[in-house]
């Protein structure tokens, strides 16, 4: 969804957003109930994920990928890859199984004191910490609307606002 500002090649070479330090575990991908059902047992990818299930206030179930047990050291800088990351090929999931969160990263929809905003995660090595005019334009000309619409039916993707995340829309 961000291919106009983020090339597939730069993402493939980077994979920063598919590996997690302990302090970044709040960012691990969230999956719909249907996708969890598929990926938590034998599936076409040959990789079975472990998920923790949650429910929204409206009773919608979703799953968070569990990576906590994969750390091998006490180093807070240690990163563990997403279960569905292939070191050579990148994400192995097809579009329909890839979390929406992953397709819009480094954008996030966040709740800032009760108001929904679209913000930039300032750590993407390619986009950088400040949204440029191309990214702002992309959000303004349709992508922002798409994110708001998705969040209406999948409110679990809404994250609490964090200081330092520039607001775009
Ligand atoms: S699901 Fe795919 S895109 Fe998302 S973090 Fe895992 S490997 Fe990366």
Topology:
Blueprint: H1 8-14, E1 19-20, E2 30-32, H2 33-39, E3 51-55, E4 61-65, E5 80-81, E6 85-86, E7 90-91, H3 100-104, E8 107-112, E9 115-120, H4 133-153, E10 159-160
Parallel strand pairs: 8-10
Antiparallel strand pairs: 1-5, 2-4, 3-4, 6-7, 8-9
Bound molecules: iron/sulfur cluster.
Bound small-molecule species: iron/sulfur cluster
Low-pLDDT stretches are: none
Helix content class: 10-25%
Structural class: alpha+beta
- Whole-angstrom Rg: 16 Å
Number of domains: 1
Helix and strand sequence: HEEHEEEEEHEEHE
Biggest pleated-sheet summary: 3 strands, antiparallel
Mean pLDDT: 94
How would you sum up the global shape? globular
Which structural traits does this protein have?
169 residues; alpha+beta; three-stranded antiparallel sheet; three-stranded mixed sheet; 4 helices; binds iron/sulfur cluster
Question: Please, could you describe this protein's structure?
Answer:
The protein has 169 residues and is α+β, with helices and mostly antiparallel strands. It has one domain. The protein is built from 4 helices and 10 strands. The protein has helices spanning 8-14, 33-39, 100-104, 133-153; strands at 19-20, 30-32, 51-55, 61-65, 80-81, 85-86, 90-91, 107-112, 115-120, 159-160. The chain has a 3-stranded antiparallel sheet with strand order 2-4-3. A 3-stranded mixed sheet has the order 9-8-10, covered by helices on one side. Strand 8 (107-112) and strand 9 (115-120) form a beta hairpin. The chain is globular. It starts with 7 loop residues before the first helix and ends in a 9-residue tail after the last strand. The model has no long low-confidence stretch (mean pLDDT 94). Residues 18, 29, 82, 84-85, 91, 93, 98-99, 102 line the site of iron/sulfur cluster. The site of iron/sulfur cluster (SF4) has 10 residues, from loops.
């Amino acid at each position: 969804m961000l291919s106009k500002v983020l090339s597939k090649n730069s993402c493939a070479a980077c994979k920063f957003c598919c590996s997690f330090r302990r302090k970044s575990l709040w960012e691990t991908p969230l999956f719909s109930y249907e996708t969890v059902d598929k990926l938590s047992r034998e599936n076409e990818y040959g990789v079975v994920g472990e998920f923790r299930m949650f429910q929204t206030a409206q009773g919608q179930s979703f799953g968070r990928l569990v990576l906590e047990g994969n750390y091998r050291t006490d180093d807070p800088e240690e990163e563990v890859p997403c279960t569905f990351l292939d070191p050579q090929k990148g994400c192995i999931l097809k579009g329909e199984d890839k979390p929406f969160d992953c397709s819009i990263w480094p954008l996030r929809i966040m709740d800032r004191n009760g108001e929904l905003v679209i913000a930039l995660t300032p750590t993407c090595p390619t986009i950088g910490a400040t949204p440029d005019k191309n990214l702002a334009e992309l959000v303004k000309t349709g992508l922002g609307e798409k994110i708001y619409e998705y969040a209406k039916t999948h409110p679990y993707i809404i994250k609490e606002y964090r200081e330092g995340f520039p607001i775009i829309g």
